[in-house]
């Protein structure tokens, strides 16, 4: 009798391990595995490395000198008629009467050598480009955090579904233990003609039904566990047991980390506009070149090695109002980001209030169900004593047991939904 009551008391029910001899896995284990195997997180990590290299490239482009090997060979052929002789010349020399390009305008030449270029006064340009690269790095880091946070929610939801199946399996096991004991008692009573054989058959039918329910719960657990492994990128398909979890509501925060996205998007637009403004600043370069440059291809060609140096200057004064148009585009995009940010704040606050209100309703329903379960425990205990005395029909006992099972399953579902709701609240309250 005491054993039956112990097994039936809900508050003291011990969940039976679904797979024996295998260490239980924790929620933290699956979350870390999911983050490690996430293709999207790994992509963001690689993008972060790319942005680091881009920052180094920009520094070299705007501040470092450049040395190039260059050269060109130009032919301007003509048909010469000098001295009454018509002949083709690939490299004309002092032709007077000829057909072809005017040698005073265009003539063949050979150029080959080295050119060294050093940007001057480019610190402001580099600063603008470097700032954009830094913002890109921050965006990639934020994307890693956002995706990790999203994965934590998804993995936790799937983990809770597995725990729900696990609870149902344990509950079915506890009911089967009770029915086994009742079957033995009723069999003896039937043999003593205190109860009918039909009562004994009825209890056997009921036990078979709970066995089938348990098999369904086990199949559901295996399916949900496999989905959990797929979500986390785990190749292992063995059936293991999971540790129970306790989720608490996170402390309410006013500065949501979701807002970092909008802040970085704004900074990125501002940095992009600053880079666009670079082309409208004066650009000054110091250059030095040396090599061979000649327009004559004869024995004296190699006498024309030399060098030159100078400064190049460029400054865009007008480009069809593109500068103003770009500024207007940037301002419009900034307005969009600002609107999206304010809209997110409003919706997020409403969403969290809704979750808290639903949780209060869940708590009220949970208290009612706990009272119902306690009442069923007392009734079943009384019925058990009456059955042992042959004073109660098995049908009445089974009816109450089924009702208690329905309430218990609803309670388990309620608790799972409560955990899912807490997980959703914590996701947005971040």
The proportion of strand residues reads 5-15%
- Give the termini separation: 50 Å
Second rung of CATH, namely the architecture? Up-down Bundle
Give the overall form.
Answer: elongated
How many DSSP helices? 8
Major beta sheet summary? 4 strands, antiparallel
What pattern of helices and strands is seen along the backbone?
HHHEEEEEHHHEEHH
Roughly what is the average pLDDT, rounded to an integer? 87
Strand order of the largest sheet: 1-5-6-7
Radius of gyration: 41 Å
- Tell how many strands the DSSP assignment holds: 7
Query: What is the count of distinct domains?
Result: 1
CATH homologous superfamily (4th level) name: Outer membrane efflux proteins (OEP)
In terms of per-residue confidence, which ranges show pLDDT below 50 for 5 or more consecutive residues?
1-21
CATH class annotation: Mainly Alpha
Could you tell me the CATH topology label: Outer membrane efflux proteins (OEP)
Helix content: 55-70%
SS content category: alpha+beta
List the topology elements.
Layout (H helix, E strand, L loop, with lengths): L1 H7 L18 H11 L1 H25 L2 E9 L3 E3 L6 E3 L8 E2 L9 E12 L2 H69 L5 H36 L26 H19 L5 E12 L10 E10 L7 H67 L5 H35 L2
Antiparallel strand pairs: 1-5, 2-3, 2-4, 5-6, 6-7
Helix pairs in contact: 2-4, 2-5, 3-4, 4-5, 4-6, 4-8, 6-7, 7-8
